[in-house]
Design brief:
By secondary structure, the protein is of the alpha/beta class. The chain has 2 domains: 244 residues, Aldolase class I (TIM Barrel, Alpha-Beta Barrel), CATH 3.20.20; 70 residues. It is built from 16 helices and 9 strands. An 8-stranded parallel beta barrel has the order 1-2-4-5-6-7-8-9, surrounded by 6 helices. Helix 6 links the parallel strand 6 and strand 7. Helix 5 packs parallel to helix 6 and helix 15 runs antiparallel to helix 16.
Length: 334
């Protein structure tokens, strides 16, 4: 087993925020993160958003389950009650997370009804109170993921004020989705596509707040785009591109850190012990294999790979043999 494909935690310098994978609801679960770690030993990985209420009031600490191989790993929280967020952050730190991130970017109606997500950009003072409470509760970094604005916030001033309040609250790292969000009238999917990207606004934020670590998110799909952003900013956070074409993570890792570029077949085979261990504890293959579908994106045999897994993973008794079967056309094509 080649060492570069063994999932392992890296003790990254505190200022290394160059590459990360965004928190994505229904996608970046623990199975997805383990797979992404095989492809990128150093990327910061984020959980799906977990509400502070689920942890504190719902006592759903099972939501914090993760593998030690996933580190460096951040827990993203959603909420707007400082006391509750502080307690949830404490649970996260005690569970071993390396960072606690506050969601101030999700525009969905469900999130708004709970008074958290992107709507909090309209209440920066409250966000500041939340961050202060969380920082007082834990010793790991407390970071914020936000938008460049919401609704009619069409100028830089709103983002500038937000950043100033975050700095006063002790935030050192701000991950910015370079689109504003419409709180009404657009679905979450449309909010990821319709509001125009404004990278220049994020660049300006970094110029005017050089002491702030600024990580950019939104519309980034290639190694070349990552490299270009890193000439202006501290980090790049990949979203759906990393999910649909996960091999992109390995390509970025090779460029940024000089890691050998693994073969896709090797990546798949190195997840076998994890898959078999999860199957033994009762996890259905479909919950793991759905995250693997994009591994051969753009390669010969990719369609057959996806079809074999999609058609077979939900069947009773589906196991590693199905993944070996799916791999066969790709290996022949290679």
């Amino acid at each position: 087993m080649s060492s570069q494909l063994s999932p392992r935690a890296f003790a990254l310098p505190v200022d290394d925020w160059r590459i990360s994978v965004a928190p994505m609801m229904d996608w970046t679960d623990r199975h997805c993160r383990y797979f992404h770690r095989l492809l990128s030993p150093r990327a910061r990985l984020y959980t799906e958003m977990v509400t502070s209420a689920a942890l504190v009031r719902g006592k759903q600490l099972r939501l914090l389950e993760h593998s030690q191989q996933e580190h460096p790993l951040a827990l993203q929280l959603g909420g707007s009650d400082p006391h509750e967020l502080a307690q949830a952050a404490r649970f996260g730190a005690e569970a071993g997370y390396d960072e606690i991130n506050l969601n101030v970017g999700c525009p969905s109606d469900r999130v708004q009804s709970g008074r958290f997500g992107a709507c909090l950009m309209l209440e920066p003072a409250l966000v500041g109170d939340c961050v202060k409470a969380m920082r007082d509760a834990v010793s790991v970094p407390v970071t914020v993921k936000c938008r460049i604005g919401v609704d009619d916030q069409d100028d830089y001033a709103g983002l500038q004020q937000f950043a100033e309040i975050m700095l006063d609250a002790g935030v050192e790292v701000l991950a910015v989705h370079a689109r504003k969000a419409w709180l009404k009238g657009l679905s979450p999917k449309e909010n990821r596509e319709i509001p125009p990207l404004d990278y220049e606004r994020v660049y300006r934020l970094k110029r005017e707040f050089p002491q702030l670590v600024v990580v950019i998110n939104g519309g980034i799909t290639t190694v070349e785009q990552v490299q270009a952003h890193l000439t202006r900013l501290d980090g790049v956070m990949l979203g759906r591109a990393a999910y649909h074409d996960p091999y992109l993570l390995a390509q970025i890792e090779a460029v940024l850190y000089g890691e050998p570029l693994p073969q896709r077949d090797d990546v798949l085979r190195h997840i076998r012990p994890y898959v078999e261990a999860e199957l033994a504890r009762g996890t259905a293959l479909k919950h793991i294999s759905r995250h693997l579908l994009g591994l051969y994106q753009g390669e010969p045999g990719a369609r057959a790979f996806r079809r074999t897994i999609s058609e077979g993973a939900h069947l009773p008794g589906a196991g590693w043999d199905l993944l070996e079967q799916a791999l066969a056309p790709c290996s022949v094509a290679a």
